[in-house]
Amino acid sequence: MIERSKTVMNDLVAAIRNVMLKHEITNEELRFAVKYLKETANTEFELELMMENFFEITTAHVTNNKNSGSASNIAGPFFLEDAPDIGSEGEIKTLEEGEHLPIVIRGQIKDLAGKPISGVKLDVWHSTPRGTYSGVHEGIPSEYYRAKLTTDEMGYYKVRTTKPVPYQIPDNGNTGRLLKSMGRHAWRPAHVHFKAHKPGLQEHITQVYFNGEDYVDSDCCEAVIDELVIPFVEENGEQVIIKNFVLDAA
Ligand code: MBD
Ligand code: FE
């Protein structure tokens, strides 16, 4: 731990000092930054959001550089334990009100040797058709828009739900304001989150994005990875996203 800190923190301080010198940061600007960070930390969820927005994708890239399975991606702030268990195939509870497009997400989970893996617990969660998250934002109980699947004996899973929409990070908070001051917007493209785990395998956190949609090329979290941008295919009149997984060993 101390060795790690010696290496990393000395580098980090040096990197920040280089930026300060390059841009001739004044003491007033340093004080402003400290005040901004303090305010961020004193606002519930805001420091977490800021760090996830700017740096979580980098830890995903570190993981992906070491692994040979499918690409990991950021978790974001809205995973909840204890989503409804629906077996290998089922429906996510959705609210039928308003505009919503029914979709199917299905796929197969294999190990690095190409062998299907049964009994993988696969959490799936995503926004409502209004761009909010259940159990987090007002008015949607947590058993909606989330489910825990378990792959069948051939590693398959299949879930019916509604299509999520782009998500806007609160633009009146310190993360949204910082993004704006950087000339960037606070939107994420529509996405579906996944977390796969089974003893003996690495826990795998990822997302999928939809081919050709808004903000896929300008995600405020810069988290879109080509491999995770998936086209809809039509199967029996249904709009289907096929997301397969290859999981690395623990
Ligand atoms: C989200 O839904 C999300 O996925 C991330 C990474 C950040 C904020 C909201
Ligand atoms: Fe999200």
What do you see in this structure?
With 250 residues, the chain is α/β, with parallel strands linked by helices. The strands form three sheets. It has a six-stranded mixed β-sheet with strand order 1-5-4-9-10-11, with no helix packed on it. The radius of gyration is 20 Å and the shape is globular. The model has no long low-confidence stretch (mean pLDDT 96). The structure holds 3-methylcatechol and fe (iii) ion. 3-methylcatechol binds next to loops.
Given the structure, what is the number of helices? 4
The biggest sheet amounts to:
6 strands, mixed
Radius of gyration: 20 Å
* Helical content (DSSP H or I, runs of 4+): 25-40%
Give the overall form. Answer: globular
Instruction: Tally the beta strands.
Output: 14
Question: Could you state the order of secondary-structure elements as H and E?
Answer: HHHEEEEEEEHEEEEEEE
- Overall mean pLDDT stands at 96
Bound molecules: 3-methylcatechol, fe (iii) ion
Our estimate of the beta-strand percent is: 25-35%
Low-pLDDT sequence parts: none
Structural class: alpha/beta
Distance between the termini: 22 Å
* Arrangement of strands in the largest sheet: 1-5-4-9-10-11
